[in-house]
Design goal:
single chain; mainly beta; Hypothetical Protein Pfu-838710-001; eight-stranded antiparallel barrel; 9 strands; about 50% strand
């Protein structure tokens, strides 16, 4: 069964910007609950439908399926009441990839880094630009931010 194990952090400063080029992600949510979220994402002309189910603050069931771009555009426009856009930077550091998300609109100027791990107890080196850990604060999940933008906190 596919499981995503992820830790999340706020990002400090701008040194990370020179380490990768961004890609633009547009995503919307059909369902936003702690127990289950259903997301449509479009990036680089490709689209996915993702279903996530809560296990712990660090681990989730994750089922992700490619879908036709036209289907995703229709779903975003007509079936996803909660949306967000962001730039994502993939940054390698000491054998791990950090996904750094720079949010737009009402979630700006929020910048969050996440790292996927093989298990919840995996040790990893933290780059200097990594700030406070927010893994256990559900307000920083994409699903929550789509419904409750950072600017409204």
């Amino acid at each position: 069964m596919p499981i995503e194990i992820e830790r999340r952090f706020l990002v400090n400063g701008n040194k990370w910007r020179v380490l990768a080029k961004p890609q633009t992600l547009r995503q919307g949510y059909m369902k936003v609950d702690k127990e289950c979220s259903i997301r449509v994402r479009i990036t680089d002309g490709e689209a996915w439908l993702t279903i996530k189910g809560f296990i712990t603050d660090v681990s989730r069931h994750e089922f992700e399926y490619p879908i036709p771009l036209l289907h995703a555009e229709t779903m975003l426009a007509e079936m996803c009441p909660f949306k967000l856009e962001k730039h994502r930077y993939h940054i390698e550091h000491c054998g791990f990839i950090y996904d750094v998300d720079e949010y737009f609109g009402n979630n700006a100027p929020l910048v969050v880094a996440e790292i996927e791990l093989p298990n919840e107890n995996t040790l990893f080196a933290k780059p200097e630009w990594l700030g406070e850990e927010i893994t256990h604060d559900g307000r920083f999940s994409n699903a929550y931010l789509s419904k409750h933008p950072y600017a409204q906190w």
